[in-house]
Amino acid sequence: MSASELTPPEAARWAARAGLPLPADRHAALAATADHIHSVVAVLRELDFADTPPAPAYRAEQESPDAAL
What is the pTM of this model? Predict the structure, then answer.
């Protein structure tokens, strides 16, 4: 287990701290789900978005597929 993996007791503690107390049989599932989400977010953090404008700058009507016809 790596240092970044969330253990079931830690997951239970964080859930309780957030006001979401869970039964003991849900702690392992919560930890596994949190670890999966963390791994997905870690991949997204590695992407280079330097030339990507922020979402409010996108205008769907300007990028219409019919515009090229």
Answer: 0.61
Contact call for residues 38 and 4 (beta carbons, < 8 A): yes
**For 14-51, what is each residue's pLDDT tens digit?**
999 999 999 999 999 999 999 999 999 999 889 888 88
Q: Where are the alpha helices (DSSP H) in the chain?
A: 8-17, 27-46
**Whole-angstrom Cα distance, residue 2 to residue 4?**
5
Q: Label residue 19 left, alpha or beta by phi (over 0 means left) and psi (-120 to 50 means alpha).
A: left
Q: How far is CA 27 from CA 10, 11, 44, 45, 59, in A?
A: 9, 6, 26, 27, 43
